[in-house]
């Protein structure tokens, strides 16, 4: 298989800066949450700096220690050149910049979305990727390491081994009609095994809302940073999540009116049984995933787009498309093609629903990418 020594050049015209922030707060379940986030943003110059390290080696080692991913041990490399620079000045080309959030998959790290976050920042967005306690792995600025908790690993394992879930998975059709897909999705979402999994999604959504609150304080100047008076927040924020992170994305859209729209990358609908997201939502996925999220569009009063992507593996939607050293976890699409596909759909969707530009996801044409359905229940 082809391997890469560098991530692709960003598609936008800005140089990309990145800074790290730590957060602490008490969640609604009274647990203390200690988070970190990488913030990617547009800059005008690399200031003579060298590109930043991709992932802390200590975080990479934690991945190999996770019981959740024992089968994936040593399948990706962190020895790859990035296309961003730490702690640059914020670009002066625009007065304010719109804000997006990225949510990685369960068991992953906030660095796993480096390619898409860098691309979006190079187009003029401020992009926040959070390390979520218990469900992801990360190193905080204060040096402390947080790995995926045993409880979260056990919950994921229990779901993947649940006899009822396995039976339903065996009945999923590759391209079901809407009625069949919605019924299957309903049957999955009512499984008792999903209750604990949904609790973790709700906590991740709280994390996003807390960090969003923090950004408002940065913009107002209540907290000092390079973002004082520079964030374009009144048009609404966007959010995109991969896999388990896609559940968080949908919950945030449902519960926080500051978010204008969201994107789920090969994700599902856990915790969303009777939910009207009230926001435009886009799903890119591998078949037969329509069975896992059909209920989103059935309930959403705003536009929901379902795009099926053939010849793609689940992890192709994150950085592993470039960092993989094991072809068994990769799909058949070329890494650059997969990156361009995900970035283009994401870019056009946010252009239209956040920036109100004349851009359309339906106008994009990629071989083997089909619009299964577009719903709107206005």
From TrEMBL:
<dbReference type="GO" id="GO:0003847">
    <property type="term" value="F:1-alkyl-2-acetylglycerophosphocholine esterase activity"/>
</dbReference>
<keyword id="KW-0442">Lipid degradation</keyword>
<dbReference type="Pfam" id="PF03403">
    <property type="entry name" value="PAF-AH_p_II"/>
</dbReference>
<protein>
    <recommendedName>
        <fullName>Choline esterase</fullName>
    </recommendedName>
</protein>
<dbReference type="GO" id="GO:0016042">
    <property type="term" value="P:lipid catabolic process"/>
</dbReference>
<dbReference type="InterPro" id="IPR029058">
    <property type="entry name" value="AB_hydrolase_fold"/>
</dbReference>
<keyword id="KW-0378">Hydrolase</keyword>
<keyword id="KW-0443">Lipid metabolism</keyword>
